[in-house]
Design a protein that fits this description.
The complex is a heterodimer. Chain A is an all-alpha fold. Chain A is 78% helix and 2% strand. In chain A, a hairpin with a 2-residue loop joins strand 2 and strand 3. Chain B has 2 domains: 132 residues, Response regulator (Rossmann fold, 3-Layer(aba) Sandwich); 133 residues, Response regulator (Rossmann fold, 3-Layer(aba) Sandwich). Classes of the chains: A mainly alpha, B alpha/beta.
Chain lengths: 329, 326
């Protein structure tokens, strides 16, 4: 009987915690990333005449979009205290499934729906691995990383599927009211994610599970069901990213998106989503993705080799997490 | 307070890193502007971006030094940027977009994916930037010239060598690179074309190893497991040939399985000299960078540029390896 009331208790508890202690730290951190972004942009504007132009800034947003979609998806599972290493592979598998259907049947709608289903299904299976088999998320999704990549290679025998039809190309390279379609897609997904996380039961349970899984369970939250749903959402987002990436490069490649999971996790973490669970926002995640996009773009404009770029991105990641730790102290 | 200080320190550290990486270029560009100011009447120094598939092997480093030599001779402001690895297709395309934003005068690209690069060549064309492809051609787009090896010829060279070695009879395996790259497709196609003329030779395995050494070793181990009586293997790149060679050596089959590679590299040349590797098809990667930048300069100066520039291939065996080893 009491079960029905207790989840509310937890939520109230969380809110009060935020009010008293969380505010300063959280704002500081969000400010931190905006300051970092601002400083980076200022530095790049001074050093490269090509950085601060409308077309380049649009270019940065376009280039960040695939990472942003993956990062939005993975935000949900990181908030639960989990992780998803299969993003890049699921992205490739979804893209390839879309490509194969387009090539053999030509139906655009079926191809897109199938890619989304494949993405969601991979996420769902991740969720089952974690909740039913009790695998740690790291291991379960590491397995999926290999499974999905392997399937993508099996389906295509390693060959690219290129030359996608015009409506699909529109998803990756078209423009809606002068704005590149991928950017519009990211904006829509951002709004949806924000609503899920802040306005729905699922969102509140998400934070509750990350904050204290045992407490959430004891107060009647169906933790396993929530986790499966959240991993499914993450998989679905990987599927969306797969469609956008294939559309953008005009070919579905089984080797697409290798290592993208790490970029996406980095974007979320830079954006203040705590690896310890229970904290983070989609706004932070988007900012994190933009920070990474600006870094890559700016360093390219400055002719800094991609090897150094990896070093810089690693440093940014470490700095962001150390901020997170400082905040906790 | 302590927090804020730490945050500021962290960002300063970050900025310093970025500044450190950028400073060299920044200095160069100030020199450039000074130079530009001092010779305002003279023609503007053309800027050319060379975008290889990666910079992780001697092959691409040779392309880079060829490009640098041509840039020096022709007074070109050269940028060489590449993704961290050849399979990182989208990263290369992002670099192309960034170079378009940088408004370079010409682009020399070795596409990581021949089909995928087309929309990005279109983007460059829209920005009136002429595009040259080096090493690997694109499947479309408006490309002024393709500067590279005739890979079908190179593959044939390897195929003919296999026929000669096995006297027209035996079992052969083929290890290909990242599927979808025109170069790799052509080498494999040329190789198979040559084999077709020798009905006694059977192609028992064809596996991709993504131009990675470690993967090629695993792939080769598996091929050897499945075909213990294999006679020869042709790997479409030097790193894969070295990986395959390691697998053959580990299996103790150096005498039985002839390894033929593609591209010369110090290590593989030494393996030929030591008699471990049979031969390789050498392409002139230096020429690709050199002739690529040169073609771009000629084009920018209004000269006619042929739409196909062959950079040449040669079979390197124990007999002529010294020439390459110098």
């Amino acid at each position: 009987m009491l079960d029905n009331n207790e989840p509310k208790l937890i939520l109230n508890d969380r809110r009060s915690r935020l009010d008293i202690k969380g505010n300063l730290g959280e704002y500081l951190q969000r400010f931190g990333i905006i300051i970092a972004l601002f400083l980076m942009c200022a530095f790049l504007s001074i050093t490269s005449p090509h950085f601060l132009t409308v077309s380049n800034l649009a270019n940065v947003l376009l280039q960040s979009s695939i990472n942003a979609i993956l990062a939005l998806g993975v935000t949900f599972v990181i908030i639960t205290g989990g992780i998803d290493l299969s993003l890049g592979s699921v992205l490739a598998l979804a893209g390839v499934v879309m490509g194969v259907i387009l090539q053999n049947y030509g139906s655009i709608i079926i191809a897109i729906v199938a890619a989304l289903i494949v993405g969601a299904l991979c996420g769902y299976i991740n969720g089952l691995f974690i909740t039913r088999l009790n695998l740690p998320p790291f291991i379960a999704t590491l397995g999926m990383m290999s499974i999905a990549r392997g399937l993508a290679l099996v389906i295509t025998k390693g060959y690219p599927i290129s030359g996608l039809p015009e409506p699909i190309r529109f998803i990756g390279a078209g423009k809606i009211l002068g704005i590149s379609t991928p950017i519009v897609i990211v904006a829509l997904l951002f709004i949806i994610c924000h609503i899920i996380l802040t306005q729905t039961k699922l969102g509140r349970y998400n934070y509750a599970i990350g904050g204290n899984e045992e407490a959430a369970k004891l107060s009647g939250v169906n933790v396993n069901k929530c986790k499966v749903i959240l991993y499914t959402i993450t998989g679905l987002f990987s599927g969306i990213a797969g469609i956008v990436l294939a559309a953008r490069v005009n070919s579905a490649l089984a080797i697409a998106g290798m290592g993208y999971e790490l970029d996406a996790i980095a974007a979320a973490v830079i954006g203040g989503v705590s690896q310890a669970g229970g904290e983070g926002s989609v706004a932070g995640t988007i900012l994190g993705a933009i920070v990474m996009g600006v870094l890559r773009n700016g360093l390219n404009l400055l002719d800094v080799s991609t090897y150094w770029q990896q070093v810089v991105i690693g440093l940014v990641l470490v700095c962001a997490v150390s901020l997170d730790q400082l905040k906790r102290r | 307070m302590k927090r804020i200080v730490s945050i500021i320190l962290i960002f300063m550290l970050l900025l310093a890193t970025v500044a450190g990486c950028g400073s060299q270029t920044a200095k160069e560009s100030t020199q450039d502007t000074q130079q530009a100011e001092s010779q305002e009447q003279g023609p503007k120094k053309p800027s050319i971006a060379v975008i290889p598939k990666a910079l992780d092997s001697e092959f691409w480093l040779d392309v880079k030094s060829g490009a640098e030599k041509a840039a020096q001779e022709n007074n070109v402001d050269l940028t060489v940027l590449a993704p961290d690895k050849e399979s990182n297709v989208e990263q290369q395309f992002r670099i192309i977009e960034d170079m378009i934003q940088k408004k370079v005068d010409a682009l020399c690209i070795a596409p990581c994916d021949s089909a995928g690069v087309v929309p990005f060549i279109d983007k460059a064309n829209e920005a009136n930037i002429p595009v040259f492809t080096v090493d690997t051609d694109a499947d479309g787009g408006d490309v002024v010239s393709f500067i590279g090896t005739d890979n079908i010829m190179g593959g044939k060279l390897a195929g003919e060598r296999v026929i000669e070695l096995l006297n027209g009879k035996g079992k052969v395996a083929l290890i290909v690179g990242v599927p979808g790259q025109q170069t790799m497709r052509d080498r494999a196609a040329g190789f198979k074309e040559a084999l077709a003329s020798a009905p006694g030779i059977e192609l028992v395995a064809e596996q991709p190893a993504n131009s990675e050494r470690a993967l090629a070793m695993t792939v080769m181990e598996n091929i050897l497991q499945a075909n213990p009586d294999l006679d020869a293997v042709f790997a479409c790149s030097t790193l894969m040939a070295m990986g395959a060679l390691e697998a053959v050596e580990a299996a103790g089959k150096l005498d039985q399985v002839k390894v033929i590679g593609f591209d010369s590299q110090q290590e593989s040349l030494e393996a030929i000299k030591a008699g471990k590797m049979d031969s390789l098809v050498a392409q002139n990667s230096f020429n690709m960078g050199y002739l690529g930048v040169k073609a771009a300069v000629d084009y920018l100066n209004g000269k006619d540029v042929p739409n196909r520039i062959d950079t040449g291939t040669e079979l390197v065996t124990k007999d002529n390896v010294d020439k390459y080893l110098q």
